[in-house]
Amino acid sequence: MLNKLAASELVLNEDGSVYHLNLLPEDIADKIILVGDPDRVAKVSKYFDTVEIKKNKREFYTHTGTLRGERITVMSTGIGTENIDIVMNELDALVNIDLKNKEFKTEHKALELFRMGTCGSVNPDVQVDNMLVTQNVVGLDGLMHFYQDYNFENEFSKNFLEKFPYEKIKPMLYFSDWAEEMGTYYKDAKYHGNTATFPGFYAPQGRQLRLKAVDDKFLETLNDLGITNFEMETSAIYALSKLLGHKAITVNNVIANRRRGEFSADHHASEKNLIEWVLE
Questions:
Q1: Cys bridge to 119: 92, 140, 179, 229, which one at CB 3.0-4.6 A?
Q2: What are the tens digits of pLDDT across the range 163-213?
Q3: Nearest of 18, 48, 54 to residue 279 by alpha carbon
Q4: CA–CA separation, 55 vs 97, rounded Å?
Q5: Measured between alpha carbons, how far apart are the two ends of the chain, in Å?
């Protein structure tokens, strides 16, 4: 790859900020909390001691400030791994590419990324309104197959692939895992588990309205293969972090148990507990 990037590859706004996130390098901290919902950004940053940056474009809202003397950023990604693809590449560009000259920097900077979200569980033993940290993740969206250099395998991925029965979906699968050293932040989480990242909310998550999902046992099958919970972003965050040299961990609040048909009685209170617990 050439060191000099074409204007069509690294697209910038008129002020030199990265195209979608609308951010300059000085706008972000080295520790970044990623949330899906733009409305959740202010719910997080209200706990900061100071807020110095507030920027947004489309669904990407960013607040940067300080918490207990340390600079910190919270950013919304929107829903899905396609949005994570944008967020991860543009965050990396902010710290590892000279935007003015459109050249790679000689020294690499690693960000610490904390996904703070909600999820559903496929394990009937997991109780709602509790925190779950993702250790292993399988992506069912196919994103990482577009990246030439991505290759990941561990015991979880080998066992999952060997027993996964859905041949039409199997070519889309890819795997990753957490930055284990970041697990010390949240070692007291009630659950640590294996997450499935889905490319949609309805059939990919086994929901059926007027259209039929792949079968009626999909979530149960995933649980039998070692999956604890599901959501829509973590596989891309973990995998792209590995490829780009960053560190990532996901902490999700379990707001639904699909196998038991349960949903949080007060998911707003549950969200507040998640924010306070993660920031603690």
A1: 229
A2: 999 999 999 999 999 999 999 999 999 999 999 999 999 999 999 999 999
A3: 48
A4: 21
A5: 42
**Cα–Cα distance measured from residue 38 to residue 18, given in angstroms and rounded to the nearest whole number:** 18
Q: DSSP characters for 33-52?
A: EEES-HHHHHHHHTTSSEEE
Domains of the chain: 1-109 (3.40.50.1580), 116-280 (3.40.50.1580)
**How far is 53 from 180, CA to CA, in rounded Å?**
30
Note whether 74 and 32 are within 8 A (CB): yes
Cα distances (Å, whole numbers) of residue 153 to 158, 161, 170, 230: 7, 10, 15, 20
Q: Which amino acid is located at 191 in the chain?
A: Y
Please state the φ and ψ torsions of residue 268, each to the nearest 5 degrees.
Answer: -70, -45
pTM for the predicted model, two decimal places = 0.97
How would you classify residue 80: left for phi > 0, otherwise alpha for psi between -120 and 50, otherwise beta?
A: left
Q: Which residue has the tokens 């973990």?
A: 238
| Strand 50-57, strand 97-98: pairing | unpaired
